[in-house]
Each structure stands twice: as C-alpha cells, then as structure tokens.
Design a protein that fits this description.
Length: about 575
C-alpha cells in the first residue's frame, strides 16, 4: 500500500514543481531580457550557483549562502511591475528574483553590507520631554551643535552605526529650501524641519524620538521604534474600603480564625472542667458543691472569665488541679500575646491613595476638565470627550502642574504620553507624586526615525535587525528613570500619624457587651418572677396546694396531729414547720 501511494505522489509532486517553474522567460509582468541567451544574467537560471568572479563565496557548496542557488535574470526597468533592483552594469536594466519565482534573499543578506563604509548625513535633535529620546545640553527642541546628545535613542543609534559600519556626517545647518517648504505649510517645529529635510533628500537620517503623525509620514519615510501609550493621569485622594455589617461586627475577632476561636474555647473549657473535677474532692476548692449541674456551670463560668481576663480564675488546692491550672495559665498568656499583637492592624481603618476617577468614561460622566497636548486632542474626541471639557496645552510640560483636586484648578485630570509622566515624576528626586495613572491606556502613537528615500530600505533593515536582537530594549532599560514616588508615598504612609479607632471598628465588642447585658437582665427578671411565686423555702412550696385552695384546717384536724401535706401551711410564712408539717396544738 505504501509503495502504491509513493508511486502516485511522485508524478503529482513532479507536476507541481513543473507548474511552479516559470521558465527562462520569467513572469509576464516582468519578462527577462534575452531569455534564450546563455550569457550570465540573461534568462531565469541559478547564475551564481557555481561561484563567479564577483561572488566567489558561492563556489564552495558547504559554506555558500542560501541565495547562490536561487534563480534570477535581467529585466527592463520600464517593463517590470514586480520587485526589481537597478543594475550597475547595464543602464536601463535591473535584476529580479521575483520574476523567476524566488524571494530576493540576496538583497536581504547583503543589505547591511551595502551600508558598510557609506557616509550618511545625519542631524541630531534634542527632545523636549520624556526620557526615551535624544537630549542635547542647551539645545532642547533644536539641532544639537558640537554634540550628538545622550539618551536611549542616541545609544541605540550608535549600536546600529557600529554594527553596520556606517560613517556619520553631522549636519547642524539646513538649506533655505527646507525652511521655505516648512513655512509654506505653516509649521514651526524644528522636528518638522528635520523631517522635511530627509523627505527632500538633504538629510539621510534624523536622530530623535519623533512622533509619527500622518503629516510627518507623508513628508518622509519612517522606521518605527516603539508604540508609546497615551495615559490618563489624576490626583490621588485618601479613601477607605467600604465594609459590610458582618465585617464591621467581626473586626475585633479577626486576629484569630473561627477555627482557632473554637479550638481555644474547647481547650479552656476542658481544662476548667478537669480542674473542677479535682477540686470537688474533700479538700478541694469546690468541695461544698454537690450538684453536678452547678459544678459544670461553675467550671464554664470560670473558664470564660479566665479567657477574657487573660489569667486563671481558679485557686486549686489539689495537686492535679494545680498542674492543670498551670497549663491553663500558660494558654491564657499565649492567647493574649498573639491576640494583641495583631489586633491593631485589624481595628485601624485601612486607608489608601486612590485616583479621583476610575477611568476616562468616569471622567466624562463627572464632567471633569481634561488637559491635553494638541497631538492628543483627536484621541479624546474619538473617545467621546466633549470639546468644552478639553483644555489644550501647547507645552507638554505644563499639563501636570495644571492638574488639581479643587474645582478652581485648570483641570482635574490630564492626558499625556506615559514617558512624559514617568520622566516628570523622576525630576528632582520625585515630583508630582500626588498624581497617579488612571485605568488602561486611552490610546497610543508610533515613535520612530525619519530616513531618506535613498537609504530607507537599508536603514529599515539595519534598525529593525538591531531592535530584534534586543539592543533597543537594553538601551531603554539602561536609561529608565528611577521610581522615587513609590518610595516617597510608602514613607509618607509609614510616618503618618495612625488613624484613631472609630465606633465602626469597635462595633463587634460593643455588640457582644450589649448582648451580654441583655442576656443577664433577662435571666435576672426570670429568676425574680420565680422567687415571687414561691417565697417560702423549697420544701414548703413543693408540697403545698395553690393559694386559692389554701384554707385553715379545722380544730379536729389540727388536734389529730395528721400530716398536713395537703393543707395550706404556707399561709403563715413566719412559721417553719418540720418535714411532717404537723400543726402545733395551742
């Protein structure tokens, strides 16, 4: 069966390979020149498979690059509609792997080599904000003079230049034609000026953290570096977590788990019962208590009293009672130490710093004023923020100082890039620590480098390859600002005066105390009513008839000395008859 299947698949695979082979003429969209000629480069063929004078590395099959066996041919540039590269040997012609059905691996392999030794015209710009860009001393927002600057972008660019073997010619002054182009478009930024210079061919590269706006991408090609999040920032306010009624009652008991409370009660009551058992002997503390019920009640009472007073309330006289009493005292000491050690953390109301809104939708609902740079206003409008609530800020560094909790503040929240916020908080060892990021990112924008059309492909490949190797992330980590605000806020909370206990935190003990008072009052009232119904001793009240049937017996009955168990002896409470309850004779 396997042999038959193989015999069927071989013709199919051969037919498929023949269908993929476009032949020596190439594709109709880009036909080869002189495809019937056997001259090098004419007609689709593996012209470099055995090595040539120009590419001798293809001669050794063990070390030859992968593109050596790929097919290509010369084509006319004017008649080719697919990927093609101009030829340096034949004017008007180009060479193409695509028309022969192959990917151009040759260009990808040698793309960085085409930059090696080349001199590129580069202008270094000093970014005005954030921390990920390029920064020049004394040249914020301007071209760097006599310096390249410092920062993640500059560090990453140096790595790319070193690995690709590029020579750099720093350009500080640009031709008047670039200024004239910028003026015609009504732009004033020096960043826009550099971007127009690369688009017009006066520069090969602008080194700075450049936001890839639509108008900028139309002026010049870009190589993207990263996507910068746009975040919502607002002031923090102190707030406490809402608690339920059950949590409020159980706050004072939370240092111990319910299982531990139950185990503790069982141990203490058991020890008390054992002590009471020993102390009911002849010389014990409770030798006068004969009722088992009273013994158990006394043991439970003294057990709970010992637990709440954190000391043993027994005075045992027997050896066994004293030994068990020592164990009970030890348990009480451990209980009070463990309970009080963690009680304060549960009773004190936990307060934390939270933003004054939950997210952008909450800010819209609460009609908050939002400060934003003009580049972020479109993002806010897309999210449905009314234009009347947007406060434009032409300078990015003015957004954070304008945010406040008070209604008189310029705005209650702000929108800016994440790197601007991180950089601002790292200023002066911790600034704007009263502000906090709110919710997820509300948007993002691409950041990259503008390059000339001439070197866009080569520079894109070199920059993307270096970024894929992790050089960009390492440069960003190396220059990441220190987070001062977390340590400052933590220190402020630790040194702040502790919050006073509130009625809410002590609701549990109050409830237990009031419940105990109510239970004791009810028990006392019940006992008092029982005592009023039978004021005589128990041996009289248990053997007397109800008061309505009580009557003085006749003289005959009294003289006979008959037992008066059925008569109303209790009518004269001042007299205590004997157990036979016989009436005395007069």
């Amino acid at each position: 069966m396997a042999g038959r299947l193989s015999a069927l698949l071989v013709p199919l695979l051969s037919a498929e390979a023949a269908a993929v082979d476009v032949g020596p003429a190439g594709s109709a969209e880009c036909p080869c020149v002189n495809q019937s000629s056997e001259v090098y480069g004419f007609g689709c063929a593996s012209h470099d498979v055995n090595g040539t004078e120009e590419y001798p590395e293809c001669g050794d099959a063990s070390t030859a690059p992968g593109w050596c066996g790929d097919q290509w041919c010369y084509v006319k540039l004017s008649e080719c509609q697919v990927t093609v590269e101009p030829s340096e040997n034949y004017p008007g012609l180009g060479w193409s792997y695509t028309t022969c059905g192959y990917r151009d691996s040759f260009s990808r392999t040698n793309i960085t080599e085409s930059l090696r030794g080349k001199t590129l015209r580069v202008q270094f710009l000093g970014n005005t904000g954030g921390w990920k860009g390029n920064y020049c001393t004394g040249n914020l927002g301007e071209a760097c003079v006599d310096q390249r600057g410092f920062g993640p972008v500059q560090n990453f660019f140096d790595l790319v230049v070193g690995s690709a073997g590029i020579k750099v010619q720093q350009i500080s002054e640009l031709p008047e034609a670039v200024y004239a182009q910028r003026a015609r478009l009504g732009q004033r930024s020096n960043f826009d000026l550099c971007i127009w210079a690369t688009g017009m061919g006066f520069l090969d590269l602008c080194v700075a953290s450049l936001v890839m706006l639509p108008r900028r991408s139309d002026a010049s090609p870009f190589v993207s570096l990263w996507a910068e999040p746009t975040i919502l920032v607002g002031p923090t306010v102190s707030s406490a977590e809402e608690v339920t009624f059950g949590q409020m009652l159980s706050a004072a008991f939370r240092p111990f788990s319910p299982e531990l409370w139950l185990a503790l009660l069982c141990v203490v009551i058991t020890c008390s019962l054992v002590i009471t058992y020993f102390e009911t002997s002849q010389h014990g503390q409770f030798n006068d208590i004969r009722s088992k019920r009273l013994r158990a009640a006394e043991a439970v009472y003294r057990a709970l009293y010992s637990l709440f007073m954190c000391e043993s309330r027994f005075e045992p006289q027997t050896l066994g009672g004293r030994i068990v009493g020592l164990g009970l005292a030890f348990m009480c000491i451990l209980f009070v130490c463990g309970y009080t050690a963690t009680l304060a953390s549960f009773l004190v109301e936990e307060r934390r710093l939270e933003p004054n809104v939950e997210d952008l939708n909450d800010a819209i609902r609460l009609n908050k004023r939002i400060c934003a740079h003009p580049s972020h206003i479109l993002t806010l409008k897309v999210h449905g923020v009314p234009e009347s609530n947007i406060v434009p800020m032409s300078v990015r560094s003015e957004i954070l100082p304008s945010i406040g909790v008070e209604e008189s503040s310029i705005c209650q929240v702000g929108v800016l890039s994440e790197e601007d916020f991180v950089s601002a908080q790292a200023t002066n060892g911790g600034s704007f620590c009263n502000l906090q990021r709110i919710g997820p990112a509300v948007g993002s924008h691409m950041v990259g480098l503008s390059v000339s059309e001439k070197w866009s492909r080569q520079l894109s490949f070199a920059i993307m390859a270096a970024a894929a190797d992790g050089h960009l992330q390492r440069a960003l980590r190396q220059h990441h600002p220190e987070d001062y605000c977390t340590a400052i806020n933590l220190a402020t909370q630790n040194t702040a005066e502790p919050e006073a206990l509130t009625v809410q935190s002590m609701a549990g003990p109050f409830f237990v105390t009031l419940a105990t008072v109510g239970f004791g009052h009810g028990w006392s009232e019940t006992a008092a009513r029982g005592q009023s119904r039978a004021s005589s001793p128990w041996w009289v009240s248990w053997h007397t008839a109800p008061a309505r049937r009580c009557s003085r017996p006749s003289k005959a009955v009294r003289r006979s000395g008959r037992a008066c168990r059925t008569t109303a002896c209790g009518r004269w409470p001042g007299r205590l008859p004997p157990k036979s309850c016989t009436w005395p004779l007069r």
